[in-house]
Amino acid sequence: MGTRNNGRQADRLSVVFTVQVIEGGEQGFLDVYDQLRKSVARTPGHIVERLGAPVDDSRQWVITSEWQTAEHFFAWQQSEEHRALVAPLRQWVDSTQSLRFRVVKETTGVTS
User: Fold this and answer.
1) Residue limits of the ABM domain (predicted)?
2) Residue 65: Cβ within 10 Å count
3) Is the pLDDT of residue 6 over 60?
4) Does residue 48 fall inside a structural domain?
5) Distance between alpha carbon 30 and the CA centroid of its chain, in Å?
6) Strand pairing partners for 60?
7) Per residue in 38-84, pLDDT tens?
8) Which structural domain range is residue 25 located in?
9) Total tally of structural domains belonging to the chain
10) How far apart are CA 112 and CA 96, in angstroms?
11) What pLDDT was estimated at residue 5?
């Protein structure tokens, strides 16, 4: 197991976005998300995006992303393209929550 803690890692921003999808709205949510992820993949400073599906009947989905810096993320989030892409998402969700944090330590597993 290794731990990395250097200046470049500390500049990274991680975003956790939880989405409570309305009952029966999974496919609509996934269709909107598919467009969103294509946009974010082209965005400067974007490192990775992951979509997590619930393993129970909670309808709670999780979108996580990593960015080179907070400035990259906020530039994308405040863009007209982002606003246009997320607007249709509202019809498929009951609630959302966004957490943003700076990565200060990262621990990786042992590789063989």
Assistant:
1) 13-101
2) 21
3) no
4) yes
5) 14
6) 20
7) 889 999 999 999 999 999 989 999 999 999 999 999 999 999 988 99
8) 8-97
9) 1
10) 39
11) 44
